[in-house]
Structure formats: C-alpha cells, structure tokens
C-alpha cells in the first residue's frame, strides 16, 4: 500500500427528538448560520463535512431525522449507525422532554448500558424563562445520573449552538466552527419518504441514508 494513502475516518452525529423541537433549525444554524421561522417537515437528511487534518481526512456526518419515527426499525437503524447523539427537546413542550427519556433508553438498549455519546439539548431558550424546563433537578439528572452533556440553545438567536458540536468535535481534534471554505464543501443529501398509505415508504434502503 502506498504511503500516500491517508487515514480516512467517518463519524456520524445523529439528531433525535420529537417533531418541531428544532433539530433542523440547530443544524442549519451551525452549518449556514441562518434561521428560518417557517416549519418544513424533515424526512431524513444527511450533511457531510470533510475535514483535512494532519495526515488524516475526517468525514463528519450530521444526520437530521424526522422526529415522527413511524417505523421503529428505521429509528433503530439510525441509532445503530450513529456514533454520538443529540437528543433535542423544546423548552415549551413537556412531552418532548419525555420523548428524550424514551430515546435515551432505546439508545442504551441498542448501544449498551455504558454508552456515553449523548448530549441533551433544551432548544428554544429564546422563548424566555417561563417556558424553561431545565430545572436544577433536570440538569442534575442528565449530567449525573445519565452522565450526558446538557446544553440550552436557541437556533433562533444562535445561543450556544456551536456548543452542541464543540465538545464532540474537540474530542476528534477538529475545529468547532465551520469555516467558509468548509461550508462550501458541505454536501447535503436528502431523502424524500412520502408517508402515505397507498405507497408504503419502507424501501429497504430508505432508512438512514447510506448506512
Ligand atoms: P424539527 O422538526 O425538530 O426539525 O424542528 P424545526 O427545526 O423544523 O423547527 C420547528 C419550528 O420551531 C420551526 O418553525 C422553527 O422555526 C422553530 N424553531 C426552531 N428552533 C427554534 C428556536 O430556537 N427558537 C424559536 N423561537 N423557534 C425555533
Ligand atoms: Mg426537522
């Protein structure tokens, strides 16, 4: 093998959480530094960033999921193929926090009790303290009982959005801000899965893009 063949790694970061909590908005804020207040339902979208570091090329994949998870097998595949997870809930949606607990249980079931790559995100911090669910008790439970990271973000204002990605990218010794050059090299692939009764969407490779 040629000495010029460099190490090539791929790591996949998966966003999970109820529909409407801001998964797509957080990813858009991180990758493009913009915010869109209109809601477009995501099906499944994979973003890829290519980093060149000393002697290695690293492909960082960010998987955006739909949040409706009508197909448990699809969700399980997203979990199996993920290396780290952002479990997102919205400050003003108590049910979405409960969904985070269910998702964490499913991740541990599939990845093993000792799995540590989870960050819990309370998004929509801009809605003000009255809709905040991140009580000291919630934060303690996440950080101490779960051993997971906890971040409060606003995709609308941009608050803490980089923080979501920062620790995780730092662990891989990659820059946590997307440089303009890298932004141009970001590819996005989306899969349209139409969830209609007449046309069953579960084609074999419709789950977790390129997994
Ligand atoms: P997803 O289904 O989890 O991908 O949620 P989206 O990213 O599509 O966001 C759902 C809705 O919430 C959209 O109308 C967004 O504009 C809005 N939204 C997302 N993030 C925030 C935020 O931080 N603050 C506020 N106020 N609205 C947000
Ligand atoms: Mg979405």
TrEMBL record:
The keyword Nucleotide-binding applies. One of its GO terms (cellular component) is plasma membrane. Residues 192-201 have a biased composition (Basic and acidic residues). InterPro entries: P-loop_NTPase (IPR027417), Small_GTP-bd (IPR005225), Small_GTPase (IPR001806), Small_GTPase_RasD (IPR052236). It is a lipid-anchor. Its main location: membrane. One of its GO terms (molecular function) is GTP binding. It comes from the Eukaryota. It is found in: Cell membrane. Residues 179-211 are annotated as: Disordered. Keywords: Cell membrane, GTP-binding, Lipoprotein, Membrane, Methylation, Nucleotide-binding, Prenylation. The keyword Lipoprotein applies. Belongs to the small GTPase superfamily. RasD family. NCBIfam families: small_GTP. This is GTP-binding protein Rhes-like. It comes from Sinocyclocheilus grahami (Dianchi golden-line fish). The lineage of its organism: Eukaryota, Metazoa, Chordata, Craniata, Vertebrata. The gene is rasd3.
């Amino acid at each position: 093998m040629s000495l010029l063949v460099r190490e090539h790694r791929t790591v996949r970061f998966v966003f999970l959480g109820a529909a409407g909590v801001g998964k797509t908005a957080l990813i858009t804020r991180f990758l493009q530094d913009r915010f869109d207040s209109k809601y477009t339902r995501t099906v499944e979208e994979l973003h890829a960033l290519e980093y060149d570091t000393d002697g290695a090329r690293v492909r960082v994949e960010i998987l955006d999921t739909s949040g409706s998870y009508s197909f448990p097998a699809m969700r399980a595949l997203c979990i199996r193929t993920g290396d780290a997870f952002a479990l997102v809930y919205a400050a003003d949606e108590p049910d979405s926090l409960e969904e985070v607990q269910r998702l964490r249980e499913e991740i541990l079931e599939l990845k093993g009790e000792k799995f540590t790559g989870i960050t819990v995100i309370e998004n929509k911090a801009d809605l003000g303290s009255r809709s905040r669910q991140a009580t000291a008790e919630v934060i303690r439970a996440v950080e101490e009982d779960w051993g997971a990271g906890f971040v409060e973000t606003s995709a609308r204002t941009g608050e803490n959005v980089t923080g979501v990605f920062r620790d995780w990218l730092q662990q891989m010794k990659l820059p946590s801000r997307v440089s303009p050059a890298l932004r141009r090299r970001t590819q996005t692939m989306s899969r349209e899965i139409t969830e209609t009764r007449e046309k069953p969407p579960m084609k074999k490779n419709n789950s977790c893009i390129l997994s």
